[in-house]
């Protein structure tokens, strides 16, 4: 099959013919319908995260099940699925407690080693092993994934749109509804209005937040945030975003979401909080980045700092529910998609993302 191969940050990704082995026990093979190009992929491409290489990239996608491995009964050939980059093992203490986004086996085996649950890869080229990215590797014509990472969804949902549910939507909306559990009437600030940030905005709207302040250095992005439910805009390119926030909401906000993941934006989120507020780190920074805050202020103001991995979702429950919300008109997905490119234009899709002018580009095999 054709797939996008990453070797190192110094070279552009390439399209190559690679071999995909049949699914083993507990796995399925999925024909990819669409795959979203995300900033997490960009972090890997830039060398900002440690990742095993060579690797087939991509962790957001949708498709159709075409083959079942031994023992798989939860899916059938022909099922429409959204891929989850946290395929819960179902056995570790976090999965058993219902915190599937913290799956220990994903965190210690699948993600860092670039393999599936049994510690091996299904991907190779001319005898050379290729690594999986986050147990997905959706920048390809097909993927073999753990059955728990292929989430069955309704057949009438457009596969080339709901691909974004697998990362951007689950991460952003989940951070609001699951990680922070934002209450009706709360005040919310969202730093960064890209693909994830806009989903934080519409998650806050779903939660019934009274004020939702969209913050970005690109005015077009905050204008778009109004379509997703933002009530106020801040142009962070003009002057300090924290100062502008307190001009709008003098007491500070109940929740501030950093959807970018830079040291500076995390520190801004903490400084925007009012009494009892929570800063939620959603965007992921480069490895080794450190932010600072005043512990005394945090304690005296009864504030919290929360990390949100994958929106704290339970994939088999939350992903179908998010697709249903889209089909029912409660979530906007179509405006998140800036464009579609064939698989062999993956390098150009990365260029678009680096330039900052797109939300989500979908690769269509």
Give structural notes.
With 365 residues, the protein is α/β, with parallel strands linked by helices. The chain contains twelve helices and 19 strands. It has helices at 39-46, 93-96, 104-113, 159-162, 168-180, 195-207, 219-227, 241-248, 263-271, 295-300, 315-327, 346-355; strands at residues 2-6, 14-17, 19-20, 27-37, 55-56, 61-68, 80-83, 123-125, 128-132, 142-146, 150-152, 187-191, 211-216, 232-235, 253-258, 273-281, 304-307, 337-342, 360-364. The strands form three sheets. Strands 4, 6, 7, 10, 11, 18 and 19 form a seven-stranded mixed beta sheet that branches. Strands 2-1-5-9-8-3 form a six-stranded mixed beta sheet, covered by helices on one side. A six-stranded parallel beta sheet has the order 14-13-12-15-16-17, with helices on both faces. Helix 5 (168-180) crosses helix 6 (195-207). The chain is globular and about 60 Å long. The N and C termini lie close together (10 Å). The model has no long low-confidence stretch (mean pLDDT 96).
First-to-last CA distance: 10 Å
Helix percent band: 25-40%
- Counting helices, strands and paired strands, the structural category is alpha/beta
Overall mean pLDDT score? 96
Described by strand count, sense and barrel closure, the largest sheet is:
7 strands, mixed
Note the overall shape: globular
Helix count? 12
User: Mind telling me the C-alpha Rg?
Assistant: 20 Å
